[in-house]
Amino acid sequence: MAIESQAIKRPAPFAAGVVGAAGGFLGIFVGASNGSVLLGILVGFVLAAAAAFVAMQVLDEGMERPFKWGLLGLITVGGVLLGGLPGLILGAIFGWLFGWFIYWVGMGRYRVPLPPYLTAGQVLWHYSFRMLCGVIFVFLITPILVVMPLSFNAQDFFTFTPEMLAFDPAGYSLKHYKDFFTSTEWQGALRNSLIIAPLATILSVSFGTLAAIGLSSEHVPFRRAIMAILISPMIVPLIISAAGMYFFYSRIGLQGTLLGVVLAHAALGIPFVIITVTATLVGFDRSLTRAAANMGADPVTTFFRVQMPLILPGVISGGLFAFITSFDEVVVVIFVGSANQQTLPWQMFTGLREQISPTILAVATILVGISICLLTVVEMLRRRSERLRGMSPG
Amino acid sequence: MSTLKGSGPQTFDGPTPDDALHEAAALQGRDTEPRHGKGKAAPMLAADGTPLKKSLRRALRAQKMRALLLIAPLLIFILVAFIAPIVDMLFRSVENEIVADTMPRTVVALRDYDADSGEVPGDAVFEAAYYDVFIAAERKLHTRLGTRLNYEQTGVSSLFRKSGRGLDDIGEVYQDQFKDLDGDWDKARPWAELMGDPEWIADQEAWDKDKDGSMPRFRLAEGISDLLPRTAEHYRIFARFAQVEEGDSPLKEEPWTAVHTALYQDLAEVDVSSYTGPGAERLKAADALVASPGFKTVNFKEAFAEIDRGWTEPAIWQTIRLYSPKYTSGYFLNAVDMEKTVDGIGMRDENERIYGLLFKRTMFMSLVITGSCILLGYPIAYLLSNLPVRTANLLMILVLLPFWTSLLVRTSAWKIMLQQQGVINDTLVWLGLVADDARLVMINNQLGTIIAMTHILLPFMILPMYSVMSTIPPYYVRAAKSLGATNWTTFWRVYFPQSVPGIGAGSILVFILAIGYYITPAIVGGTTGTFISNRIAYHISSSLNWGLAAALGTILLAAVLILYWAYDRIVGIDNVKLGG
């Protein structure tokens, strides 16, 4: 049993210093938006340090809850005075944050989740590292989060308008969504995407699953070479695939046809199907097919009644990968397709290059919604198959 | 969160024919070993009486066949839909048939031309060029050839375009004189009767567009090509062109002026007095006209010079000669900023070298992107692999969501955030950290491309790193610490070396993806942040220099394949992991 770390109350000047530094950091921004950075740092430091000192030194421990509420109220009021409605929300957030932070530092609660033998430096490093990772996560997720509120912009701007920042309902509207659902161009593009992607998915899943089953049997001559060829569409840069397909498909008359685009997208989706299905087949217990054969099932029955239900999660996630590959693909469709095969990403690409309208943002938000759904399905399938694999022998 | 592992070594509980085969061989080997003078033991038999070894081998072969049959449809599909286009592109990067196909006579005539002499070639070359360009102009191919040669020498394109129109003048001089002599020389029917086989004329007359399908193929009259070789050749070309390309009957179409030129050339050389076929009188009269002193002739070389002085400079002839072979390294040389000149292969002028710069920039930026992905991805992968599974799964969503989000959504998000009136600049201005008139330029340059692509490729770095790091046992680190190593030493000497395979796998993957990127640089890269792929796209869709696009693509492909090979050696292709 590990020794639990205890939260030990820290000296008040320590808490005041740390919280004051945080206050000073926040003061940079508040000060900058109100005219003077230096003043902001100073005031921030003094206020935060004073609050921490009061909480730690003057008040006794039972006063934690009232103090936190009081601080939240004070900072919120300050925020309203400085910045109106946005200030209110930011103030409330920071008020809560500071209340929590003062007690977290002052009472030594930061020690609790860590082993007791760590030195102060190690504790500092631990939390700095967490902060760093937090920043990177913010970097990863912010672009996606920024797009969503902007898509409700009432203006044709690609940035937040003052009305939006003031949370004025007039600053928001659904007009970009209305644009998307009424414009014939966008609807045509959506329809094309919804025709091409499923067709390509069906092609790559049916060929890919068969081949993956073949590849997973152990006596395959040239297995490595075959695998290299089948995975190559994923590795070869898209622009090269696109160029090659453009030249070749115009020679054989497929350029600018729906069939050409579907074939091209199916080829691009195949590596994903191969990878996911072979991964699923690793955990497949082969004695099941032998048992089925033993009991008189022909290979087709064995495949559909025994093998397929077990590898289905892998096949479906492979299919979803293939679907999203085709649904997202721009480069190849631009070259292989013609205006009649204009897909959603193509339309977005032209929109972005020519800066036509923020309808793109509405489309982007819808696409993010779709990818969240797909991600959820794939994760659920993956966990299910892991659970099944964990239970089945071999 | 464990990963989807590739099909690594497979485990089989049951016996397979292969195992049995080895076993049988071993058994038999022991049995057949002549020991103590014993005789050879009988081979083991299967249930149906065939030797066990044979029957097992048959079973193994059947299994192999079945596996291959399952793979075959996909393999064929990929070979046709994907590999064939790539091979076609490779072929296009060296293919150069257009010069020899469009100007066959000129290419032959130029064979004896000494390109180093600095002189304009002789009349024979100009004569050949006249017929070649004339026919090419009728087929509307001369501008294509001009465009092709323009890649090698600027100005050729307009030269060919002008000449296509201007060369008619030469033939018209002869046409007019023959026409003045006898109006039949400008009529379709008399020409066809003079040149065509009578049987063919009968066939062609009987031909009905709606009933018979394609026209009867034009045939020359017997002996006419011995008598009037040039005229026969060019009339035949004209007739076939009219039939096939335009669907017109040569009986109703008057021939090109080039045929009149050919007729003049023939009549000036041969004697037609023995000719007795149709139109003999007309031909003899024309012969007399040509022999008469008042007959106007045109010198080919002068006519060309009149159309454009460019034809009298040796450069154009040198270029045609240099690019006459069916295969050329010209595109590749061009792709590495070199060119073929009369003196051999040399670098282009300093101000024309762009591809070397582009390749270097692509490499450099890909390296920077890979580097920043390592820097940002390593802490995340470390954190995820050291957190409790539940928390790690939750945080993993933050990595997987960008991975699953459409590339265009992420690119457009970055465009919105980075532009001068964008979210980041607005925030900075609002905070007062940046003056309103000094907004940061973060887009349409290298910085924009690097930021956006690092974000887009980061999941490809984190996922392989994570899957390697989550297999590193924690007790090495603990052991190192308990032996007195400092934090840094523990990390650097114990943990880091074990995580290097993950860094390697992620880096190669990110680098491969980065050097071929097209969409993101095209949108946020401006002019200084574009990659070689953007140039390839430009050559395919705007400048239409497909050969150069193919050559650039081939070089890029070679680089990627080397990396792919390295990836295969280090990680194994079938260990590529997707998601989680």
Automatic annotation (TrEMBL), chain A:
PROSITE patterns: ABC_TM1 (PS50928). It is a multi-pass membrane protein. Keywords: Cell inner membrane, Cell membrane, Membrane, Transmembrane, Transmembrane helix, Transport. The keyword Plastid does not apply. The chain crosses the membrane at residues 12-32, 38-59, 71-104, 124-150, 194-213, 225-249, 261-284, 310-336, 356-381. GO terms for cellular component: plasma membrane. It comes from the Bacteria. Residues 190-378 form the ABC transmembrane type-1 domain. It is found in: Cell inner membrane; Cell membrane. GO terms for biological process: transmembrane transport. Pfam families: BPD_transp_1 (PF00528). CDD domains: TM_PBP2. InterPro entries: MetI-like, MetI-like_sf. Signal peptide: none annotated. Belongs to the binding-protein-dependent transport system permease family. This is ABC transporter permease. It comes from Thetidibacter halocola. The lineage of its organism: Bacteria, Pseudomonadati, Pseudomonadota, Alphaproteobacteria, Rhodobacterales.
From TrEMBL, chain B:
Its main location: membrane. It comes from Thetidibacter halocola. This is ABC transporter permease. The keyword Cell membrane applies. Residues 359-567 form the ABC transmembrane type-1 domain. PANTHER family: ABC TRANSPORTER PERMEASE PROTEIN (PTHR42929:SF5), INNER MEMBRANE ABC TRANSPORTER PERMEASE PROTEIN YDCU-RELATED-RELATED (PTHR42929). It is found in: Cell membrane. Residues 1-10 have a biased composition (Polar residues). Keywords: Cell membrane, Membrane, Transmembrane, Transmembrane helix, Transport. Residues 1-45 are annotated as: Disordered. Belongs to the binding-protein-dependent transport system permease family. CysTW subfamily. The chain crosses the membrane at residues 67-87, 363-385, 391-409, 447-466, 508-532, 544-567. It is a multi-pass membrane protein.
